[in-house]
Amino acid sequence: MTQQTKAIVVFDIDGVIRDVGGSYRRALADTVEHFTNQAYRPTPEDIDNLKSEGIWNNDWEASQEFIYRHFATQGQNREQLQLDYQDIVAYFQTRYRGTDPENWNGYICDEPLLAQPNYFQELTQTGIGWGFFSGATRGSATYVLEKRLGLQSPILIAMEDAPGKPDPTGLFATISLLENGNDRKQTVVYVGDTVADMYTVAKARNIDDSRTWLAVGVLPPHVQETATRREAYTETLIQAGANIVFSNVQELNFKQIQELQKGS
């Protein structure tokens, strides 16, 4: 980035840039239901509770964990089950991407967007560098960023490129690409919708305390249906380290970033 860059914003994608309530989360529930022989389908609250543990950012692993926990209630331990993780992944993908590997026809095709292209243009115009660090696969992330949003080759660190959150390796990699050799340590804002996202910022700060780190929470659409869930989820993100929580990512504008920097 140029010397004029005032801050760096790194975005998570799922629940922040796109609504995955009817796609990733639906595919997760479908997968658990399938592998428990229709005996158990996790509710949105069940999924939130699992993810609030801070280590289940990967939905394939979350699916497997739900299956294990269901059978544990039936008195079967994990070793007895002999679950094939690749079978779980493959089934999940038939729901999420669809049955045609070339022309995706799954839930991904209908994900509502939570941000518009002009939002990113405005960040650039105000001297904010931006990129993406997501636990989504590169194919899925590129689909939404380039095909749906029309962004031109955005900086992206995806599932294949780094360990899963809350490991901050991918966040550091995104920052490195954005700073492009500039040795001036800029403020970094990471925007996410889960406990794991907030923990990622805390871990990054522990590794490198020479810059300002800001954790911004965004409420995914599925928790905004009632005031009670909205308030509880907001509190969960704040407890996990969020400096501020928004209802929509586009509320994080240049002025808000300036205010957050002043308060840090």
Topology:
Blueprint: E1 7-11, H1 24-35, H2 44-51, H3 59-73, H4 78-81, H5 85-96, H6 117-125, E2 128-133, H7 138-148, E3 156-157, H8 169-179, E4 188-192, H9 195-207, E5 213-218, H10 227-239, E6 244-246, H11 254-263
Parallel strand pairs: 1-2, 1-4, 2-3, 4-5, 5-6
Structural notes for this entry:
There is one protein chain. α1 packs across α5 and α3 packs across α5. The protein has eleven helices and six strands. The chain has 264 residues and is α/β, with parallel strands linked by helices. The longest helix is centred in the first third of the chain and has 15 residues.
**Alpha-carbon distance between the two ends:** 23 Å
Element order: H for helix, E for strand: EHHHHHHEHEHEHEHEH
- Overall mean pLDDT stands at 95
Strands of the largest sheet, in order across it? 3-2-1-4-5-6
The proportion of strand residues reads 5-15%
Point out poorly predicted stretches.
none
Rg calc: 19 Å
> Helix/strand-derived class?
alpha/beta
Number of contiguous helices: 11
Helix content: 40-55%
Gross morphology: globular
Biggest sheet character? 6 strands, parallel
Give the strand tally. Answer: 6
Question: In a few lines, what is going on in this structure?
Answer:
The protein is of the alpha/beta class and 264 residues long. The chain is built from 11 helices and 6 strands.
